[in-house]
Specification:
By secondary structure, the protein is α+β, with helices and mostly antiparallel strands. The strands form 2 sheets. The protein has a 6-stranded mixed beta sheet with strand order 2-1-8-7-4-3, with helices on both faces. The protein is globular, with a radius of gyration of 20 Å. The chain starts with a helix and ends in a 34-residue tail after the last helix.
Length: about 180
């Protein structure tokens, strides 16, 4: 059973997340009530929601392409896979990021990696839960900014004293 599940997930990675994508794969390989969740996006439940998400994502990022890296690991109904990829935002505005929206055709590129756990039921994807490097993607898309180098000096109350976190090995605060 685990090899069959790995085959289903490998095909899902290629045809759902790869480029070109196959929109028919959702009806073919996803359960009717599929649950898709990545922290960077709002959770999706059901084929219609997943189809709309991916259609909108690919309209905004026409070259969107994620591919599996390394071996898939399977145990029972679960398959775990690592992936990497990204795309360039050349399409319409995209508002499914939890951190905000990006205007149409920003030209910004994102490239990041993650790990997904998929639950397979009777040969279909029932659940996909992922952890992605959202910080990298959000920085690349301009939805968040890295702190300014001198931001600590302008921090209300000034910079934090050495040893403020009481972690062993940290310098102790003087006084």
């Amino acid at each position: 059973m685990t090899q069959e599940n790995k085959t289903v997930v490998a095909r899902w990675f290629k045809e759902f997340w790869g480029n070109p994508w196959n929109p028919r794969i959702i009806n073919e390989l996803a359960t009717a009530d599929i649950f898709l969740h990545y922290p960077m996006h709002e959770p999706k439940n059901g084929r219609a929601s997943v189809t709309k998400f991916m259609t909108d994502f690919r309209e905004a990022f026409p070259d969107l392409n994620f591919q599996g890296v390394g071996d898939l690991i399977a145990e029972g109904n679960y398959v775990v896979g690592r992936w990497e990829g990204g795309g360039t935002h050349t399409g319409p505005a995209f508002c499914d990021f939890r951190m905000g929206s990006i205007p149409a055709a920003s030209g910004r590129k994102m490239k990041f990696a993650g790990t997904s756990v998929l639950r397979v039921e009777q040969g279909r994807i029932a659940e996909e839960l992922g952890q992605e490097d959202a910080l990298t993607a959000m920085l690349q898309l301009g939805l968040i900014r890295a702190p300014e180098p001198d931001a600590a000096a302008t921090r209300p109350g000034g910079s934090l004293p050495p040893g403020w976190n009481n972690m062993s090995g940290s310098p102790k605060a003087v006084g």
